Amino acid sequence: MLRPNREKQQTYELVSIEDLVPENHMLRKIDRYIDFSFINEKVRPLYCENNGRPAIDPTVLFKMIFLGYFYGIRSERQLEREVQTNLAYRWFLGLGLTDKVPDHSTISWNRRTRFKDTTIFQDIFDEIVLQAISHKMVGRRVLFSDSTHVKASANKHKYTKQEVLQNTKDYLDELNTAVEADRKAHGKKPLKPREEVEENKEVKVSMTDPDSGYMVRDGKPEGFFYLDHRTVDGKYNVITDVHVTAGNVHDSVPYLTRLDRQCERFKFQVEAVALDAGYLTNPICRGLEERQIYGVIAHRRFQPVKGLFPKAKFRYNAEHDHYTCPNGQELPYRTTDRQGYRQYASDPKVCQDCPLLNSCTRSANRRKMVTRHVWEDSKEKMRENRLSRSGKQLYRKRKETIERSFADAKERHGFRYFRLRGLTNVTEQALLTAAVQNMKKMANHLDRQAKQA
């Protein structure tokens, strides 16, 4: 006999929301092990103490925002509807079955006005990292860094072309000092001071989101993107730094600054780092050596001119400071240019009778030129680290740490594209996505520890 279930749904029942949420639910773990009491103290200066309408509890407001990032709910309207019908969400926010859910407009208004031009989202991320440190989940000795492209909310066909000033190299003063010291050591005169000329380049600027950058990379989609530069700790894969730039900024540009920021903010004593090939630049190699950090950086393949010897065929003699060509001729030092490259040149009189000339150079004067950067020793040290046994083991962990962190963000937390526009807003999304990933990791780890105790 068939019976409709409608009548049962219309009966009154005396229940407790506490009993309706499963004991092993993720939000129970989050609520048990993550301390959210710091939120009120962080936002207190942003609220008026003696005027205005009573505000929604900031902890409730931010926990509602966290729910959106925990479960990849990208719309604030949809988030409001989900909280209305989901008992676990209500329990997490401290709402009863009949309590009114905060309106979606409250979230957007606070983000656009009250929290605008503040560091609240960075402060929340940092506080979660500090809690992970207090639970001994951050080793602070080995870090893995990389960047991933995240699609901007912008049509790649709607843009204007503009002349913009190229990024000023933050290591330029240090490089000039190194060049002058190298020239002096080789008995060369100092270079004449040159008036700095602002170098401009033409770029595509989005009409929808001007802060994004037009990205063109081999093997990557073309269009307007942002780059999420992320660092994770090697102990439990806790995210320790998040920094967002336009998609046309090179991976290596913000790296050393962000590394120093972590050491200063969290008192890291970094001993080793593992990086992708995009970070294999002379300034980064030099910076890691100066900081006494064991760096492992992937090899970057350079394609030599077809039919000519690659640079690896020319052996460098550090003791006598010259190169030796495949035919045994010495290429002595000539000069050091402003870009920091030493120039080593062969003798054309010897080269013109060399049987390997056609495989060595195609210059009209039959002179072979080989360059070596003043910081090339630091780069070679990174190459030695990469080929060592410990270096290979360290680099293999990249795919288990930083790559996995990006994959989790994109698959489970709606991080394949930014729903907001503008660098400030997309940074908010990147920071809060990383924060909830850290919360989940902390909650699961501490829950396992509690069960094993």
UniProtKB/TrEMBL annotation:
<protein>
    <submittedName>
        <fullName>IS1182 family transposase</fullName>
    </submittedName>
</protein>
<feature type="domain" description="Transposase InsH N-terminal">
    <location>
        <begin position="16"/>
        <end position="112"/>
    </location>
</feature>
<dbReference type="InterPro" id="IPR047629">
    <property type="entry name" value="IS1182_transpos"/>
</dbReference>
<dbReference type="InterPro" id="IPR008490">
    <property type="entry name" value="Transposase_InsH_N"/>
</dbReference>
<feature type="domain" description="Transposase DDE">
    <location>
        <begin position="324"/>
        <end position="443"/>
    </location>
</feature>
<dbReference type="InterPro" id="IPR025668">
    <property type="entry name" value="Tnp_DDE_dom"/>
</dbReference>
<dbReference type="Pfam" id="PF05598">
    <property type="entry name" value="DUF772"/>
</dbReference>
<dbReference type="Pfam" id="PF13751">
    <property type="entry name" value="DDE_Tnp_1_6"/>
</dbReference>
